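Hi R.,

Quick one: here's the Pyridoxamine 5-phosphate oxidase sequence you asked about.
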Amino acid sequence: MSRHYASIAFTPAVRSVQDEHGSATFYGRKADAGAAAPGPDRLTDDERDYLAERDHFYLASVGETGWPYVQFRGGPPGFVKVLDDHSIGWADFRGNLQYISTGNMGGEQRVALIFLDYAHTRRLKVFGRARIVTAPQDPELVASMTDPTYEAVVERAVVVDVAAYDWNCPQHITPRYTLAELEGALEPMRRRLAALEAENAELRAGRT
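And here's the predicted structure, written out as tokens:
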């Protein structure tokens, strides 16, 4: 985990539960070190490479009622951009016009994101502060996040200043595969099947 992750996530209530289960000493040192460290935490090449391959993530925001709201965000692989060492962003596509996440982020900027790689059971969690950027405000930024080959209406961009992140435990992530990920394994099987069918057809033809 990055330096500040524990100091954000491990609140006194969390550390009390950790104490009950025997992990308070280990995680407490991380929380104390993170609280004393200068910030913000820098994204490394590992995070850049990982995000460049993701085609979805989950976004948690908090509304004025105090309720958290979790939403799926998807797009072409790499639609989440690493803008610099401390920020990421993405084009916000038109959806069902509820605008719950957009409204929440306009009030409370703190968000949490989870990026999953089901095929390899990897998970990256991010804490950050989000801001909405529209095309009139920064046309170049919004254009830089727009993929002209992807058929979606871009209504705005979202930029998140990363506060901390953690490569979370891969336990209990059920492996799942996209069609694109399966294609590499399926195509050789299709070719082999076609060859066997052709061979069988020749053998049957030789018997007649």
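The mean pLDDT is 92.

Cheers,
M.
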